[in-house]
Write a structure and sequence with these properties.
The chain is α/β, with parallel strands linked by helices. 37% of the residues lie in helices and 16% in strands.
């Protein structure tokens, strides 16, 4: 009898472990902290946009998914100081302090794996999310591992969430092997880019005009009004526009995860 109970216990623990493994999301974050503007004439602090990252993390975590963080070289992600401004936390201001505490105390956030490790482990993940912020326009967009990761997830039709500036990473995949040609896509809009450059950063970065580049590559770009809560889901690809689009993005991403897991039953 004791032996039977032991066997049942081991099976239950194994099933729980496998279930957790089968519901793991990869979060790829930028670790860049400095943005050059006006051809290097001006420097600005940059990084991951806090609410674009944390609200997506909170959404999947509260729905039973575990998260693993990856950055270039395994360096801890940098948070854009601009993103701690209350104006980006409309209707969820009470969560801001929770997010600030998380990035300080959470072991997984502060111990990211490398992008090479993420590629090796890609079979363990059911989806990937890359939050926005200008930081990714410095390191992720130049990293050779990004197109590899995106193609791996696309090949398996795993939900791929790209937030605000992150849809620009689709541009890292050459057209002849790009799985997203013809997909509907969203990103920070041209008008929002103009406002950011003119009134917030007061300078132009090297990598810009994301919407125009996505259209040129062959994607179907769509956007909402400035500051709109806007996101698009086209098959496994979920893209969103700005720091105010989290609730729509999260709903569509969870929907894509459910659809993907249904195909695996």
């Amino acid at each position: 009898m004791k032996k039977l109970i032991l066997i049942i216990t081991i099976v239950m623990i194994t099933n729980i472990s496998l279930s957790a493994q089968n519901k793991k999301i990869l979060f790829v974050l930028s670790a860049a902290d400095t943005l050059e503007l006006n051809k290097g004439q001006k420097l600005r602090q940059t990084g991951v946009f806090l609410n674009e990252f944390y609200l997506a993390y909170k959404s999947v975590s509260e729905n039973g998914y575990t998260v693993e963080f990856a950055t270039p070289n395994g360096n801890v992600a940098t948070i854009d100081e601009e993103s701690t401004n209350d104006k980006y936390w409309k209707e969820v201001l009470e969560i801001k302090n929770e997010a600030l505490e998380f990035i300080t105390k959470d072991n997984s956030f502060n111990s990211p794996i490398t992008l090479e490790n993420a590629i090796e482990n890609q079979g363990n993940y059911v989806g990937i999310i890359i939050p926005g912020g200008q930081g990714l326009m410095i390191d992720l967009i130049e990293d050779k591992n990004i197109p590899i990761l995106l193609k791996l997830f696309a090949k398996e039709n795993k939900p791929t969430g790209l937030i605000c500036h992150a849809p620009s990473l689709i541009l890292t995949i050459p057209a002849e092997e790009n799985p997203y040609i013809g997909y509907k896509v969203n990103s920070v809009s041209p008008f929002e880019e103009f406002v950011i450059e003119k009134f917030i950063m007061k300078g132009k970065p090297k990598n810009r005009k994301i919407a125009k580049q996505l259209r040129k590559l062959g994607l179907i770009y769509r956007s909402g009004l400035p500051k709109a809560n806007f996101a698009i889901k086209d098959r496994n690809l979920i893209t969103s526009q700005n720091p105010f689009s989290s609730s729509t993005f999260n709903t569509l991403y969870l929907e894509a995860l459910t659809e993907y897991l249904e195909t695996k039953k």
